[in-house]
Amino acid sequence: MPGRGKLIAVIGDEDTCTGFLLGGVGELNKNRKPNFLVVEKDTSITEIEETFKSFLARSDIGIILINQFIAEMIRHAIDAHMESIPAVLEIPSKEHPYDASKDSILRRAKGMFSAEDFR
Amino acid sequence: MRVDQQLRLDEQLLLFMDQLEALEEKRHKLNSLIEEGWFSIAKARYSMGNKQVSALQYASEMEPLVYVETSVLEGRTAEFKCERKENKTEELKSNTIEDIGAKETISGLRRRINTIQKGVREEDQETDPQVKTKAESSTPEHRDPLKWFGILVPQNLKQAQSAFKEVITLAAEIASLQSAIIATRKEMQAQTKEQQQKTEKTQPEMKNE
C-alpha cells in the first residue's frame, strides 16, 4: 500500500505469537492473509515453509520474526534468502535458547575469515 | 597505494567488529526482554486460567498497531524504523471529551428558553455523544489486543504487553544492524580480493627482476 509502513510477520509457538500480537503486530481480516503463524506440535514443515515463502513474496512485510528451533526446520529456505528486505530475525523460544552459532546471518558473517585474510 | 588499501581494510575490520559487538549487546537485551514477556504471560495464565490466555482468545479481526518504515541506503544496507499508532487513539479520546463539554453548555442555555423543545433536543444530544463515544471508543478498544483477554486483565498481562512492545522496537534496530553487518562483510571481501589480485600481479614482476 502506498504511503504506509510495512508489517512485522511472526512464525512462532503460541506464547511467542501471543506476546507479539499483544505488542500490536497482528493483521487479520477477510481480505488479506494473516501475517502470523502459530506453530504447534502437529504443524507440518511444509506448512511452515510455505508460510515463510509467502511472507517473503509479500511486498508489505518488512521483518519476519521466527523462533530459532522453527528456523532450523526450514534452514535451507532461510539461507537461500539473500535480500535485505524482508529481514529475517531468529528469536529464542521457551524450550530452545538462542544459539548464535545457528543464526544464518552470523554464520554468513563468521564464514569470511580465514588465515589468508590476515597476511 | 597498497598502504591506503590496507588502511581502508583495517578501518572496515574495526567497523565490522564494532557492529558485531553492538549486535551482541542488542541481542542479549532482546532475548532477556522476550523471556520477561513469557514469564509475565505465564503469571497471567496462572491467575486467569490456562485457556484464558491462549490462541483461542485472538480476535477474528485484527488491525496492526505498529509498522516498520524501511529504506535502502547506499551499499544495499536496509534501515528499519518502528512506528506506532498509539498517539492517534489518544487524540480521539481527548476530542470526545471536548465535544461532550461543548454540548452540555448549549443544552444549559436552551433550558432557560423552552422546556418542551429542550426535552427533545436533550435526548438527541444525549444519544449523539453516546453514539459518538461508542463509535470512537470501539475503535481504540477494538484495536488494543489486551481487550481480547477480558476487560479487567491482570497487571502481568500489561507488563507482558509493554515488554513485547520494547522487543518490537529492538527487533527493528537489530534488523538494521544485521543488514549493515552483511554489507560491511561483502565490502571487506571485495577489498581483500582486490588486494590479493594486486599482490599476485606484482609478485611475478618481482620474480622476473
Automatic annotation (TrEMBL), chain A:
It comes from the Eukaryota. Transmembrane segments: none annotated. The keyword Ion transport applies. One of its GO terms (cellular component) is proton-transporting V-type ATPase, V1 domain. Keywords: Hydrogen ion transport, Ion transport, Transport. SUPFAM superfamilies: AtpF-like. One of its GO terms (molecular function) is proton-transporting ATPase activity, rotational mechanism. Coiled coil: none annotated. The keyword Ion transport applies. V-ATPase is a heteromultimeric enzyme made up of two complexes: the ATP-hydrolytic V1 complex and the proton translocation V0 complex. NCBIfam families: V_ATP_synt_F. Subunit of the V1 complex of vacuolar(H+)-ATPase (V-ATPase), a multisubunit enzyme composed of a peripheral complex (V1) that hydrolyzes ATP and a membrane integral complex (V0) that translocates protons. V-ATPase is responsible for acidifying and maintaining the pH of intracellular compartments and in some cell types, is targeted to the plasma membrane, where it is responsible for acidifying the extracellular environment. Belongs to the V-ATPase F subunit family. This is V-type proton ATPase subunit F. It comes from Cyprinus carpio carpio.
TrEMBL record, chain B:
Residues 129-142, 195-209 have a biased composition (Basic and acidic residues). PANTHER family: COILED-COIL DOMAIN-CONTAINING PROTEIN 115. It is found in: Cytoplasmic vesicle, COPI-coated vesicle; Endoplasmic reticulum-Golgi intermediate compartment; Endosome; Lysosome. Residues 118-142, 187-209 are annotated as: Disordered. One of its GO terms (cellular component) is lysosome. Keywords: Coiled coil, Cytoplasmic vesicle, Endoplasmic reticulum, Endosome, Lysosome. The gene is LOC109111064. Accessory component of the multisubunit proton-transporting vacuolar (V)-ATPase protein pump. One of its GO terms (biological process) is vacuolar proton-transporting V-type ATPase complex assembly. It holds the Pfam family Vma22_CCDC115. This is Vacuolar ATPase assembly protein VMA22. It comes from Cyprinus carpio. GO terms for molecular function: unfolded protein binding. It comes from the Eukaryota.
